[in-house]
Design brief:
heterodimer; A: 664 residues; alpha/beta; Immunoglobulin-like; 27% helix; B: 310 residues; Rossmann fold; 6-stranded mixed sheet; two-stranded antiparallel ribbon; 11 helices; 44% helix; elongated
């Protein structure tokens, strides 16, 4: 016979208690009422020697009840012979949380201790792998390396690998990590009990919804090992949007529920900012939005919080961009019929940018961001524009008439232009919304160009030019917007113009966004994201080839690709365009309240009923199942209850007899 | 003890008597046996007794003028008498928790109630006015002495009323009787008198000083006199709740000695105050106790008469 909880057998020692009670029973417990004690004095009692046990049958029943209960709680079962044989070991994957919230004091030590505990319990037939995870799963020590190592070296090697892991700043995507780890454990081989040991702080901000209803691999058991910090309260900072418009920076200060500290202070971390602080009162479980004076600093610090890991946030101070558009060869501005009139009004001044439309004869060609070339441009101007475009900028050429062919010919080669005849008006068709010029209109809310009619347009023929991309066509099939490569830059040709005689382009709602999109593409200073979170993939802006990390090192990046190295918070700079991006820890990581175990259980995770000891995990599981089928403890409890009934009856008889004796 | 007394003298057995629930019936049975066995008036108190002189005033009945005084002093004085009714006799019954004690089937309380009821019957049947005052730690019930139809029944009902318990307080009820019963009469006290003699002396002395003739029936259980209480146990005082662990075998001798001393002191005190004390064991038949009381009383009256003749 085996026991599931053999420690309960120690409770059988309580059987000594009834024996003692039967031995030391004292007759003086009997209380006799008497009319008056005024003539009585306390006398020493003659202690009766109880060498003989009183009521041996009662004693026997009482001892039996205690023993039966102790035996029942020990959960006895008849073991089957194969249980004794050693089966295949357990394959355990230890998942260590290295997200930002694990940077809190003492958590990583606890996590390492949990991993160490699993290692120390691992038997020779068990397999252990260690993974770290935040938003993705990373292998620290795989099953292959475990199998390759000799049993005596395994633990040491895992420890060495583990020593190089430290918590990062990324967010926790627990659901994706768990499902991936389950698949990896299941695929690592056949015939072993599968176990996932998840060591994490299980903070509220961790993403968990994806595991609901997930079909877990058969036989997988999950053991959750929550680690808890000494300090449970935390306050965090989060930037609010709207800053790019030049408003005063706004930050949201959030305090955790149940916090005892509610008074904080905000201060800029910059050489010139001084020690000026702004006090903020945030009640527990609430948040406050604070408007801060602009001081051009990149780092904001929160003081007063007991958990410092998320008390610094980064930003890129706002700087309005100054850009210049050169117009050459356009007819002079003579009111709302001319191109120059609308060109000047296409770039209104905004807090984000200030655009100047100038004549190259006055302002010169240097420092321009975009050139608009009319058909009256002189050959010198065309040549200067060509030189300008080959450096990576753009030229816009509107086709005012068939004479545009001259300018285009000088720029690109042989381009044909014929005045189109036919229908009353033409519409735009075949727009390439993926192109940066039309990207702002990709949303279906803005993609309706049917209200923009062109009374007149020119049929352009680019058959003699290479590298021409038609971005939009008129409904008769001729190119409406075409982009031709010119060196590093490009020439954008319109099949018509924005003059009111030609059509409704200038008067439509598309004109200003389109012209600004063109300017941004040309200048290479498109308004990219200024705020990002750790782990985000950042688009590399045009012209950038390297990135400067917050710690000062510079690494090359793929042009036009994505930069995925935002592992630490700080300000990253795309060089040489000078675009700065502030990367902060994800706000979810600051929600450090632990998720309740009830919620974790409700997600349908295959949680182990109790933690098994390393090597014998499978055997213990089988023992639990065998015991669950036999349920001997029920019979023992029933028998104990029966004994209690008999004991009650016997003691009633005995006490009744005693009372009679007392009366007589 | 019952075996030593002939049945015709005994009347009903005490235990059998106490099994009757009706107090009235119990009292009647005792009294009948008593009458049959004795046929003698229990109380010979004269109710026509001189009280005081008062100057005659117009309107007074001239029959009440004491002509001898007129002859001696030439002044008119009215001779006032005690009220024309018979003797007034309040019966004081102790209902304290200690009276609940009974080693056999009869408790001291049952015995005392039957005794009080019997006395009330006797007084009533003789034309006297019985009253009642029951007490424990406080006054429980008081019925002034009356002689009217139905009074006896309400007295019997009042007897059965229970008090709140607590330690017996003799001072207050006795003082109350002294205050209420201003006319001289007879006062009967039924109690176990298990209190220090010093505490009893004052209240009893007060009654005697008020001019009453006081008769004390001390009701005791045989175990209270002998203390043969079996094996060691914790003994709880029925009045105070105090507990003592003791072995009766060891404590009995000392108890008996102190009890005898107490009884002796009581006897001395009663003799000194002129109180007739009747010791009633609950094992004794009531008739026997009353007979003894009557014998004692006739003896006393003879003595008194002799003393008066001298």
């Amino acid at each position: 016979m085996s026991f599931l909880a053999p420690l309960f057998l120690l409770a059988g020692l309580a059987a000594a208690a009834p024996v003692l009670f039967h031995l030391v029973r004292n007759r003086t417990r009997e209380v006799k009422p008497f009319s008056s004690l005024m003539f009585l004095e306390e006398t020493p009692l003659r202690m009766e020697q109880h060498k003989r046990l009183e009521n041996p049958w009662l004693l026997f029943l009482r001892v039996l009840v205690v023993l039966l209960l102790a035996f029942g709680f020990a959960r006895p079962f008849f073991a089957r012979p194969q249980l004794a044989l050693s089966g295949p070991g357990t394959r355990t994957a230890v998942l260590l949380d290295v997200s930002g919230s694990m940077r809190r004091e003492g958590l990583w030590k606890q996590a390492c201790a949990e991993a160490e505990a699993v290692l120390s319990k691992a038997g020779p037939s068990d397999e252990v792998a260690v993974f770290s995870f935040d938003s993705e799963l990373r292998e620290v020590f795989g099953f292959d390396r475990w199998r390759e190592a000799s049993p005596s070296e395994r633990a040491a090697r895992v420890r060495n690998a583990l020593a190089e892991v430290q918590p990062g700043w990324d967010k926790t995507v627990l659901d994706g990590v768990l499902t991936e780890a389950a698949l990896r454990v299941a695929r690592a081989g056949e015939g072993a009990a599968l176990r996932l040991v998840v060591v994490s702080d299980f903070q509220e901000g961790a993403k968990l919804d994806g595991v609901q209803g997930y079909q877990w691999p058969a036989g997988l058991q999950m053991v959750l090992k929550p680690v808890a910090p000494r300090e449970t309260q935390n306050a965090s900072l989060q930037w609010l949007r709207g800053e790019s418009l030049g408003d005063a920076p706004q930050v949201r200060v959030t305090n955790s529920p149940g916090a005892t500290v509610e008074q904080f202070a905000l201060s800029w971390e910059a050489p010139g900012a001084g020690s000026q602080k702004k006090d903020v009162y945030v009640p527990a479980g609430q948040s406050r939005v604070v408007r801060l004076p602009e001081q051009g600093a990149e780092v904001l610090r929160l003081s007063g919080d007991r958990e410092p890991f998320d008390n610094r946030v980064f930003r890129v101070p706002f700087e309005p961009r100054r850009m210049r558009v050169l117009s050459a060869g356009l007819p002079p501005d003579d009111g709302p019929r001319s191109l120059a009139y609308f060109l000047k009004r296409a770039f209104p001044k905004t807090p984000a940018a200030e655009v100047e439309v100038a004549d190259p004869a006055v302002a010169g060609w240097a420092g321009a961001d975009l050139v608009v070339l009319g058909e009256k441009a002189s050959p010198d101007q065309v040549e200067a524009a060509r030189a300008f475009a080959t450096k990576g900028r753009m030229i816009l050429v509107p086709a005012e008439s068939e004479r545009v062919a001259t300018v285009l010919g000088a720029l690109l080669g042989r381009v044909g232009a014929i005045e189109a005849r036919g229908a009353d008006y033409a519409l735009l068709a075949g727009i390439d919304y993926r192109h940066p010029l039309f990207l702002p209109f990709a949303d279906p809310r803005f993609s309706d160009f049917t209200k923009m009619h062109f009374w007149r347009h020119r049929r352009l023929d680019f058959s003699g030019v290479e590298n021409v991309e038609v971005l939009a066509r008129f409904d008769d099939g001729s190119p409406a917007v075409a982009q031709a490569r010119l060196g590093a830059g490009a020439v954008v040709v319109l099949g018509s113009s924005w003059s009111p005689q030609d059509g409704q382009f200038a008067l439509s709602s598309k004109f200003v966004p389109w012209m600004n999109a063109l300017l941004e593409v040309s200048s290479g200073r498109a308004e990219g994201p200024k705020l990002a979170v750790c782990g985000d993939r950042l688009p590399v802006p045009a012209g950038a080839d390297s990135v400067r990390f917050p710690d000062g090192r510079v690494e090359p990046v793929e042009k036009g690709g994505f930069f995925a190295g935002t592992r630490e918070p700080g300000v990253y700079e795309m060089q040489p365009v000078g675009q700065k991006i502030a990367v902060n820890m994800a706000g979810e990581e600051s929600r450090t309240q632990p998720v309740s175990m009830d919620r974790l259980q409700s997600l349908g995770l295959p949680l182990a009923a109790r933690e098994e000891t390393g090597g014998g995990g499978a055997r213990d599981l089988e023992a639990v199942q065998v015991e669950g089928r036999q349920k001997l403890w029920r019979w023992l409890v029933v028998f104990a209850l029966g004994c209690v009934g008999v004991e009650t009856a016997v003691s009633a008889v005995v006490s009744g007899r005693k009372m009679k004796e007392g009366v007589s | 003890m019952t075996g030593q007394v002939p049945a015709f003298e005994m009347g009903p057995d005490t235990a059998a008597l106490m099994r009757l629930r009706s107090l009235e019936l119990r009292a009647r049975l005792v009294m009948e046996g008593f009458w049959h066995g004795l046929h003698r008036s229990p109380l010979h108190g004269s109710s026509v007794e001189f009280s005081e002189y008062r100057p005659y005033s117009i309107g007074d009945d001239p029959r009440n003028i004491d002509w001898r005084v007129v002859a001696r002093t030439d002044r008119h004085y009215i001779r006032k008498h005690e009220e024309e009714t018979n003797l007034r006799c309040p019966i004081l019954v102790d209902l304290s928790p200690s009276m609940e004690f009974g080693s056999g089937s009869v408790t001291k309380r049952d015995y005392a109630l039957t005794l009080a009821a019997t006395l009330a019957f006797l007084l009533s049947s003789q034309g006297d006015a019985p009253g009642l005052l029951t007490f424990d730690s406080a006054l429980v019930e008081y019925l002034p002495p009356r002689r009217r139809p139905g009074h006896l029944r309400s007295l019997l009902l009042a007897l059965e009323k229970r008090g709140k318990g607590g330690v017996t307080n003799f001072e207050r009820p006795f003082r109350r009787v002294a205050e209420l019963a201003r006319r001289r009469g007879m006062v009967m006290v039924v109690s176990d008198l298990l209190a220090p003699v010093q505490e009893l002396e004052g209240p009893l002395g007060l009654l005697v000083a008020s001019g009453h003739e006081v008769i004390v029936f001390q009701v005791l259980d045989p175990e209270e006199r002998e203390f043969r209480m079996g094996g060691a146990a914790r003994f709880r005082d029925m009045e105070t709740g105090r507990e003592l662990v003791l072995d009766p075998a060891l404590a009995a001798d000392r108890y008996r000695a102190r009890m005898s001393a107490h009884l002796e002191a009581l006897r001395g005190m009663c003799a000194q105050l002129g109180i007739q004390r009747v010791l009633c064991g609950t094992e004794q038949p009531l008739q026997r106790v009353l007979e003894g009381f009557m014998d004692q009383r006739t003896g006393m009256s003879r003595v008194r008469r002799k003393e008066g003749a001298r």
